[in-house]
Every structure is written in C-alpha cells, then in structure tokens.
Automatic annotation (TrEMBL):
Region (Disordered): 1-22
Keywords: DNA-binding, Transcription, Transcription regulation
Taxonomic path: Bacteria, Pseudomonadati, Pseudomonadota, Alphaproteobacteria, Hyphomicrobiales
Statement: the UniProt record of this protein carries the keyword Endoplasmic reticulum: no
Cited SUPFAM superfamilies: Winged helix' DNA-binding domain
Protein name from the UniProt record: DNA-binding HxlR family transcriptional regulator
Domain of life: Bacteria
Keyword Transferase attributed: no
Length: 123
C-alpha cells in the first residue's frame, strides 16, 4: 500500500488522518478534498453556471467520466459543499463561501499568465 492510499478511498474529514496530516487539521482536510482530481473543476463549473446542473450537464461541461464525477459529487456532498435537489447539483451556502475565497486566485492567475505571455481562455 502506497504512502497515501490508506487515505484516498474515504472522504477527508477534519480530525481524521488525511494526505499530508496525521491529525486531520481542518485546513489539511479541505486541501486534501480540493486536491482530488476534478474537485476544483466541479466547484468552478457549478459556480459559473446560471442554474443548477444535472449530472449529465455537469459531466459535459467538466469533461470527465461518470464514475469519477459521481465519486467527487459524493465527497463534495458529504462535505456539505455541494447539494443535489430536483433541479440538479448546486453549491451550498458553504460552497458559495468557499468559491468566494478561491476567486482571488483566479484574478492572480490571470495576471500571472499575462506576465508570462499566456493568453487566457474563458474556461
């Protein structure tokens, strides 16, 4: 078993060992969750959608396979960051607050990319 495999198959929770932290400090648990493949992409797509997205809509815009998307949605729902209702998937109030904290990184990254001569896509 690899160094992080014992943590990778469960939802990262504050107070429980996670990748990078034996104590499960809340910040480390959040970084473990957000560092998982497609977690940030799901948050990005839901934050930029005009309304809740169905599973198929989210799968299409996130450009991912259904198995991985299902796993990430389960984790993000368990973390109370994403909610599922009759209209589809959306961010919870905590999820919206998290996205508001992350968005300054987008501004910084766009400026950084421009300084490096990169062109910015709409994504």
């Amino acid at each position: 078993m690899g160094r992080y495999e014992k943590y990778s198959m469960k939802f990262p929770q504050p107070g429980q060992p996670v990748r990078g932290s034996k104590t499960g400090h809340p910040t480390m648990a959040l970084l473990d969750l957000l560092g998982r493949r497609m977690s940030l992409r799901v948050l990005w797509e839901l934050a930029h959608a005009e309304q809740a997205l169905t599973f198929r809509e989210l799968q299409a815009v996130a450009e991912t396979n259904p198995s991985l998307l299902n796993t990430r949605l389960k984790e993000l729902r368990a973390a109370a960051i994403v909610v599922h209702h009759t209209g589809g998937y959306d961010l919870t109030e905590d999820g919206k607050a998290l996205v508001r904290l992350i968005m300054p990184l987008d501004e910084w990254a766009i400026a950084w990319g421009a300084r490096l001569g990169a062109t910015c896509s709409k994504e």
